[in-house]
User: Fold this.
Amino acid sequence: MTIFVNPPKAEDRLQWESLYYGYAEFYKVPMNKDILETVWSWIQDEDYPFFGLLAKDESGNALGFMHCREMPSPLRGAMVGFLDDLFVKPEARGQGIVEILYESLNQLASEQGWPFTRWITADNNYRGRAVYDRLADKTHWVTYQMRTNE
Assistant:
């Protein structure tokens, strides 16, 4: 199977939405049209430092996606990449699509001048972590999240 990775275009919207719903379901995060519209607008805005990569087969069927963004690294005085989202349809897993997406991410990072790209994942995402352990270096950082007082 041949896999093509490109930024999602207008005609990819419905397939991207379907994948994004699957991603939200995987992480048990509620999804709605407002969120979809916001994220889609970030991907489509060439002036906004947020990027989408969509993996499709030779028939044009979307199989997976990545979303990443530029972020400052103050200690380096440079911008770096941050991978926010990665999802591959369950029926398409184990076919090398993640590796192809990471090759595209690495190319994007190089084009953007990012010295590295960082990401987090759920501790119990064992299948994903097995792939990440092959593709990248695990850091010693622990992530915390503080809720804003409302």
Summary: The chain has one domain: 3-135. DSSP finds four helices and five strands in the chain. Residues 3-135 form a domain with the Aminopeptidase fold (CATH 3.40.630.30).
